[in-house]
Amino acid sequence: MSIDLFYFWRWLLCVICTIYWAVQLGQSLWRWYQYLWADYRPAALMRKYIVVQFLRIRLHRFTLELVQIAVLVLSFLAVTWAHRYV
Amino acid sequence: MSERKESSPATLSQLPIDELRSYARELGLNVPDRMPPADLLRVIRQRQELLLELDRQAMLDVVVWARRPVRQSASKEQLAKEIASIDRMHFEGLSHRGLVALARLRDIEVSDSEPDDRIIGKLRKAESLRHFIKRKQRWLVGTVLERVILGKAEPTGEYKFLPEDTGGREPRLRQEVEDQGIVRGLAGQLRHVADDYIAEKLNEIERRIDQKLDEIDARLAEWRDREIANRLKIIKITLAASLIVALLSLGYKYASTRAVPDRPASPPVQNR
Question: Model-level pTM greater than 0.90?
């Protein structure tokens, strides 16, 4: 049985990164949930304030960054799609 | 400013075009930017005539229904300005006369004898699609926010008008001395002066606290923007790294397919 080292490395990277991302995100979301949805007044105030801060975000300030991210995502998808034709 | 605007038609015609336009919009008139001054004046006068025709109590009904904070003694013009900002399209709890007044202020032809259902139908029909979508969007956002912030809807209490602005000064010294005697009169006056002083100081402290809170808020907003920019930068770096790996993978695949020639077709299996 022969294993291609490059493919193995790519697969391992993908698995480790995905698990790491999922665990980190889950932990972070859980901590925020516990903090914000606690049943006491400061938490309720903080929750309202965070909602207000979110509503006051002006996306046009980050237009350049968002465009760059969109271009990178499209490029990534294009390269992934190109694997079929090589 | 409102006193100037509630002046006679002669002074109305002396207003500059931009003020005239904003005044018309405050009254709930839909005026385009390029409307000539003469037409603007005409529509404003028509609106003023309509206000004269409308029943003040009916207008108060509309304001109470929409729960807008006004004084009971508010003028028709103030009420009209308040009503102009009402976008609500659920008419439960609005009296018939209020409904008629609201429809007429929204430039819909209705008569007093028309049934409520018909007037409501006309009001709904007059709403533009853009306005409808915007209202529904606000309703959706409002519902979500209410659930997030309040958890459940709180029952609304009975409507109360704003307290009237009496504009009255404290009783004068002569009157107080006459009513309560010299010592009590003087003490009363001193108390009023002290109250005024304390109220002024409290206002000053409140102003300073508000200013400080605004500064904190501005700093937090700045920090929030910086934080978002940092997060976006991290996303960009991650995406760039993923793209590099994807390109490497593509190159490797290309090289491996070129380096390893296609295997020859396997020989047919011979029958034993």
Answer: no
